[in-house]
Amino acid sequence: MKKSNVALIPVFTLITLIFLVCSGCVSSDIISSESVSSDNASSDEDDGSAGESSGSEPNQGNTASYEKSSPYLYWEYELGDVAPENISEGRSNVQDCIKYTADGKYVAVGTGKNLTVLDVTGKNVLWKKTLKGNISDLSFSKDGKYLLAGERSTDGYIYSMDAITGEEISSYRTADDLGTGTNPRNQPCIYRITTADDAVYIAAGRYWKDPGYGLASRVYRFSPDGTLSWKLPAAGNYDLSVNWIDSSQDGKNVVFSTGDWTNSLETGAVIYSIDKNGNLRWKYEIPPLRPYFVSTAIWHGLDISDDGSMITAYTGDGRNYLFYDSEMRGPGDGKSEWHFEKYQSNVTAPEELEGSVIYTYGENAKIATESEIFYLTGATLPAYYPGNVPMAHPLENSLVSCDVETGETSWTYSLGGRCTGIFFSPDMRFLVLPVGKDTSSGNTQFHGIHAFDSRKSGNGNSKLLWKFNTEGVVVNAAISSDCTVAAVEVPLKLKSGDVTGKHRLIIVR
């Protein structure tokens, strides 16, 4: 992939800043700013109006929202009190979910047991309801008629609801398949809901630690109205974790993986490709990365292109793979087009520093175009647990672009804080990265939203459209095809004991 020499234009001039602040388009605690990260070439209320407030809108004329020189706060909606995040801890305790309808008109937000659907254009609440458990994932059907929701609870329900009224159409209790526990951590959880044209595919599971680590997982296909089509395995469970599932747009090629995120069962990860009837098409096994790990797992690092032709896998330990579906003839017959056997600086591999071996976790992967794949790295962790982390891994909390043809890194973009995923618009043009805590340095200046145009040429800074800073940390986000971002901010407790930010939905354009 060629690298562009075009520099990023500053997000706004002084005049634009004065206009936005004076007109009320940005609140005093939020300001958009130009990117402070660098690019390296090669190398979880009451009535609907209770929490609402909105900024006035600048005159956009005929200019599309993604062409504006700076973002502005279009609307904010308070989501209720939550305990502040601790800046010194790792993953966020708040696991809020957020999803747009395909047309960008409505957005669904799940926070704890509370589910809210909002009309973005009208700036009003469509409906609210409380589920039985904490909402773990959401997805609208492709036609926008249904909202699918999953929870972590004693029952582990999957719900199908009318997207406009909130009426429950059906529910499915996964605890009947997976078992359950008294400890919330060990209860069944709906990890991932992904929708195809006329189907919904779901990955669900649970784990327990007594007397030793145990895992149980299942994969499901439903119609959008919640009618069960099939489940895998048909009897019993996978005794491994299935944290992610993805599908081609037509639903005819579905991929998921089994693995062991506990790093205790001494097993590899297996990628499965199945058809719409649940029949095996092909599978591929990834062995553990020894001597550092005895097991392999894929967290959210599995993605298939819309047409089903390409699949990428990104293991938690940092290895990345590419598969051309046409070459995967049957179980074990195909092979990865590329992966890194000898780790280089452009791969998130374990590195020995000051007597300790550290690595940055493989968080997420997305096939952006026919020629580019994005990988998202996480926080720095010790390869041998427990162990020391003397310093941050060079590629901690970064977006890494790889060339499809060679597998080599084209550029990297440092986010500065933990990011929960790479979220694309329905047309696959725009992507948003929600940036949260920097646990390594405690720096709060990176919190916010980064919006990119994947069709722009060049590196990360060249593709960056705008950046919107927040005082709290952003734990989840979604982006529409007109580049309107919906994100969830949560408050943060600083090392000083002070709390900054608040729990709210923000709509940024």
UniProtKB/TrEMBL annotation:
InterPro entries linked to this entry: PQQ_b-propeller_rpt, Quinoprotein_ADH-like_sf, WD40/YVTN_repeat-like_dom_sf, WD40_rpt
Protein name, entry field: PQQ enzyme repeat domain protein
Native species: Methanosarcina horonobensis HB-1 = JCM 15518
Region (Disordered): 35-66
Database matches in SMART domains: PQQ (SM00564)
